[in-house]
Write a structure and sequence with these properties.
Length: about 300
């Protein structure tokens, strides 16, 4: 068992971090594809990788299995996600201990979404209601874990107002969060305004922008609908121009993500977190371009 260094200490180094997000595969075939992508991504040396946690605790075993594989077979610094959905406080404590014993020193602490088919989040009767309570729980059990929390440049869909949402973030930071990773967004102005709002509210921890290199117009519309992210006209037009050509659409998505990352790093973002949907292509192309532009160091 190898202890993974904390992302908090990496962020203190002050260089831009690159990270990617995996999700637990549904079956062995998808698992093989994910591990193939992981092997390719390894060559690009991301500073850390994260692995999401499925609804209702449904991926408890799979998340841990793949988090271990990513750490032990590929040597990644892994940040497993954890949500409050469907777990009692005691069960959450057991999972946090499992992560710790496996050597993870970074956890993304989330409330989670309601399970499929349900519209309102209902906490487990003996569970936790909000992410800030999970942050407190992790800190009580293992004070040396670096904790990421979610931030919403375009406001969490359930938040009554932007100010309420920022107040919630303040609660998560006061509870002990080390850094914030944002929900995906396609308009960098939303990120810069969000960081200003955080700073004005006294939130001084790093805010890592979450970027999705989109694959198609249908996909981006679905995501925008789900996360209430604005779809900029320029991105929509280039995806429309790609028509039914999947490869052209993917290139348009990578071009947009590249412009976003270039602008973010040029304006002081502490790195970028890519929602790669278990594929290696986008991060490979982005990394190559950013290295060529001197925005990040070569991993070779
Ligand atoms: C980077 C990132 C990673 C994610 N990874 C996963 C994952 O792995 N698995 C998964 O299922 N989902 C994941 N999600 C989605 C996330 O679980 C949902 O967005 C969820 O609806 C909110 O989670 P949260 O941790 O932000 O909740 P919270 O911070 O608890 O906030 C939830 C809502 O409650 C409000 N609120 C919080 N505290 C209070 C309070 N005390 N009183 C009143 N209102 C309050 C907030 O303003 C917000 O509207 C991720 C999201 C992001 C941005």
């Amino acid at each position: 068992m190898k202890e993974s260094l904390s992302i908090g200490s990496l962020l203190n180094e002050g260089r831009p971090l690159k990270s990617v997000e995996f999700f637990p595969p549904k079956d062995d075939a998808a698992g093989e594809r994910m591990l193939k992508a992981a092997a390719e991504i390894k060559r690009l040396e991301p500073d850390f990788v994260s692995i999401t946690y499925g609804a209702g605790g449904s991926t408890r075993g799979t998340s841990l299995k793949y988090a271990r594989l990513l750490q032990e077979e590929f040597g990644f610094r892994v940040m497993p996600h954890l949500t409050c959905v469907g777990h009692s406080k005691v069960e959450l404590g057991e999972i946090i201990d499992e992560f710790y014993e496996a050597g993870f020193r970074n956890i993304m602490a989330l409330r989670g979404d309601p399970p499929k088919g349900e519209t309102n989040f209902r906490p487990h009767p003996d569970g936790l209601s909000y992410a800030n309570e999970l942050v407190i729980h992790i800190k009580e059990l293992h004070d040396d874990i670096s904790i990421g929390v979610a931030g919403y440049p375009e406001i969490h869909p359930e938040a009554p107002s932007p100010a309420d949402d920022i107040n919630n973030l303040v609660r998560k930071v006061k509870a002990g969060a080390t850094f914030i990773t944002t929900q995906l967004f396609f308009d960098n102005n939303a990120y810069f305004k969000f960081v200003d709002d955080c700073r004005n509210a006294g939130i001084m921890i790093p805010v890592i922008p979450g970027i999705l290199p989109v694959l198609s117009l249908a996909q981006v519309r679905r995501f925008c609908d789900m996360c209430q992210a604005k779809l900029p006209e320029g991105l929509e037009n280039s995806l429309k121009a790609a028509g039914d050509d999947a490869s052209l659409a993917q290139n348009a998505g990578i071009d947009w993500a590249h412009e976003q990352v270039r602008n973010l790093l040029g304006n002081g973002a502490p790195g970028f977190h890519l929602y790669i949907l278990n594929r290696a292509r986008a991060i490979r192309q982005l990394t190559e371009r950013l290295v060529d532009e001197g925005l990040i160091a070569s991993s070779a």
